[in-house]
Write a structure and sequence with these properties.
334 residues, mainly alpha, 14 helices, globular
């Protein structure tokens, strides 16, 4: 299977022209019953060797962190960070292996955070600053990692670290801000969503890594937006009333419309657990205890499969109501 990145590399090497690459993409798109732009593709595993290398990396990194922590926790995590960067020099920069690159990036970011957090804890820094400062350092470190390796998930990891850092620092400076955690999280989610749309709008045909960057950003933005809304509705309370179930349904429909419009399924997936939980509780209250979750899962699963089958048709119908200046920012229907 050839990825768009492979085609771009072939064009850069002079193996084929831009016109030939475009013609190849067009030919592949015509052979599909669903347009490629609607399939939200991103490369994760190119072969079993990716899994093999990932397992080996996890074993090596965990053992190094374990051995290093026998001297001190910060030293163990610092060793993990350094080795993760070193391995990325080969498996990411030279071999361009997708799954190992993701794991090595996450190991690097976690290593940076834990190195700072364990060190600050050992010198008696408060819990909020002990999390906020390492999070900010981890965000800066992901920027350096992005400059070197350009792994699509890096931007999302950096934004997540930055959001966490800002929130914890705010808690440390003004503890009363804790009561505004849900609104702050929601605003952060909207900001990340807008940032994700910026990356999406720069590649409406979804042929470059910018689309992959947007995918991971949407995956971060979705729970930041969805969780505060459903928490305010008290979905996770012991009892869910009919009005709450109705509100959850309406919200999920709105989320589905947004997801179809921007051609991203992350928000729907993030909200799915809340919908399943709410309707399971509702059915329990009406005496359907043993089969409540099964019935809920059956209805929602069937609905999502039906939506998947007619995803492109739904997008075509919805987008006809959007003004031209918005359509230019959304993924192509081609």
């Amino acid at each position: 299977m050839y990825s768009d990145e492979d085609l771009d590399s072939a064009v850069a090497a002079g193996v084929m022209s831009n016109q030939q690459a475009a013609a190849f993409r067009e030919h592949v798109a015509q052979q599909r019953t669903t347009p490629a732009v609607d399939e939200e593709q991103f490369r994760l595993v190119t072969g079993f060797n990716d899994i093999f290398v990932t397992i080996a990396c996890l074993l090596l990194l965990s053992s190094i962190a374990w051995i290093g922590s026998s001297l001190s926790l910060p030293f163990g995590f610092a060793m993990q960070t350094a080795i993760a960067w070193g391995l990325a020099e080969y498996f990411t920069r030279k071999r361009r292996m997708s799954l190992p690159s993701i794991i090595l990036l996450l190991a690097f970011v976690v290593g940076v955070f834990m190195t700072g957090a364990t060190f600050l804890k050992s010198v008696g820094v408060g819990e909020d600053f002990g999390r906020g400062i390492p999070s900010a350092i981890a965000a800066f470190s992901t920027w350096l990692h992005w400059q070197r390796f350009k792994v699509p998930i890096t931007v999302a990891a950096g934004i997540a670290a930055l959001v966490a850092g800002v929130i914890f620092v705010l808690f440390g400076l003004a503890p009363e801000v804790r009561q505004w955690l849900l609104p702050i999280t929601f605003v952060a989610g909207i900001a990340v969503f807008i940032f994700a749309m910026y990356w999406d709008a720069s590649d409406t045909l979804r042929q470059t890594r910018r689309s992959d960057v947007a995918f991971w950003l949407h995956l971060i933005a979705a729970p930041l937006i969805v969780h505060p809304i459903f928490s305010i509705l008290e979905v996770f309370n012991d009892g869910v009333g009919l009005w709450q179930a109705t509100a959850v349904t309406i919200l999920y429909v709105v989320i589905a419309i947004i997801s179809i419009s921007i051609d991203r399924r992350a928000m729907m997936v993030s909200a799915l657990i809340y919908v399943l939980y709410a309707f399971d509780l509702l059915l329990d209250q009406y005496g359907i205890v043993s089969l409540g979750f099964a019935i809920t899962a059956f209805i929602i699963g069937a609905g999502l499969l039906l939506l998947s089958a007619f995803w492109h048709s739904c997008r075509t119908y919805l987008l006809q109501f959007y003004p031209e200046f918005i359509l230019k920012q959304l993924p192509s229907l081609r």
